[in-house]
Amino acid sequence: MNSTMDTGATGAAGEDPRGSAAPTLDIDRSDPAHRAWLNEAVRKVQADANRSADTHLLRFPLPGEWGVDLYLKDESTHPTGSLKHRLARSLFLYGLCNGWIRPDAPVVEASSGSTAISEAYFAGLVGVPFIAVMPRTTSREKTRLIELHGGQCHFVDDPRTMYEQAAALAERTGGHYMDQFTYAERATDWRGNNNIAESIYSQLRCERHPVPTWIVATAGTGGTSATIARYVRYMRHDTRVCVADPENSCFFDGWRTHDPHAVSDRGSRIEGIGRPRMEPSFVPGAIDRMMKVPDAASVAAVRVLDEVVGCKAGGSTGTGLWGALKIVAEMAGAGHKGSVVTLMCDPGVRYLDKYYSDAWLAEQGLDIGPYLRTVHTFLATGHWTG
């Protein structure tokens, strides 16, 4: 069968520009059955967004006379229970529309758990297999939820090898390596379209400080902090963006020293955030401030959140909350008024055997007592001693 290939060269179709006849090719990927499957898959993913109401913005109680309001964007109310539901939806739409996700071919992801739960959900929604490549230390509850949504778990002993093992597994199975750490920042529409930043500003519209002074995020892929920071600049808000980073993560050091090759020699104890390498989706230039938060402080913060608000949250929420409380203390101490927003990333029920277990804290050598006293003293007196 004769066919044509447009190489961008001048000359008649099928004619080699050097003057001799050349073979021609025509690859048609518009198979009606595949296009019908793709259209239905995209519809299902878009329908999930239409079914999901916006997540709540919770107030953390502070003395009114401070003139500073603190809010937590509760992303645990998504259908798969975490901030990563937004990311997984964006990654699936990106992969489907790029032609990377195909019927019967597995989607493979490197994840510490929450992204894998959400991606397993969307894989089940569009009818493709899903395999999560995860650290062996991932909480048992996360593993259970991945399997509940029809996914499989492939464990690795060294979290630093997740990337290579996920890519190799995708190649062996003929599947697609989703690679959230590369594509998180580009799969999300940071200009708006109901992303998390647009939602925060919309929900603050009727508050006494509708434009937050600070938004405090944490970083796993870095996609959320990039989305928020880009949106702030695009909309010309005066908000500043801070990223709170846990122990055993390289993001703080890489940001501080402008080193894109910074690494950490061990994995983070705070699941979902902190990375051993500078991820492609982490955008240091968009971030105004970074904090290094001790893991014991992160755990203390979620314990206080449970005491004060009645919500159990994961350790990554504690990392961001600690950073937000420190910023509130700075603002109140300087007599500045305004609002601060941080994120409730996922529910604490996934970590009852970790961050809410005194036995686990002892095993890890973490003493949360001094950090609990810092927060309790601050809330009672307005003085930050940490």
UniProtKB/TrEMBL annotation:
Residues 1-27 are annotated as: Disordered. This is L-cysteine desulfhydrase Cds1. It comes from Streptomyces stramineus. It catalyses: L-cysteine + H2O = hydrogen sulfide + pyruvate + NH4(+) + H(+). Its EC number is 4.4.1.1. HAMAP family: Cds1. Keywords: Cytoplasm, Lyase, Pyridoxal phosphate. It is an enzyme of class 4 (lyase). The gene is cds1. InterPro entries: Cds1, Cys_Synth/Cystath_Beta-Synth, TrpB-like_PALP, TrpB-like_PALP_sf. Signal peptide: none annotated. Pfam families: PALP. Residues 55-346 form the Tryptophan synthase beta chain-like PALP domain. A cysteine desulfhydrase that generates hydrogen sulfide, H(2)S. The H(2)S produced by this enzyme modulates the balance between respiration and glycolysis, and contributes to redox homeostasis. Probably eliminates toxic levels of Cys (which can induce oxidative stress). It comes from the Bacteria. SUPFAM superfamilies: Tryptophan synthase beta subunit-like PLP-dependent enzymes. Its cofactor is pyridoxal 5'-phosphate. Belongs to the cysteine synthase/cystathionine beta-synthase family. Cds1 subfamily. The keyword Cytoplasm applies. Transmembrane segments: none annotated. The modification N6-(pyridoxal phosphate)lysine is found at residue 84.
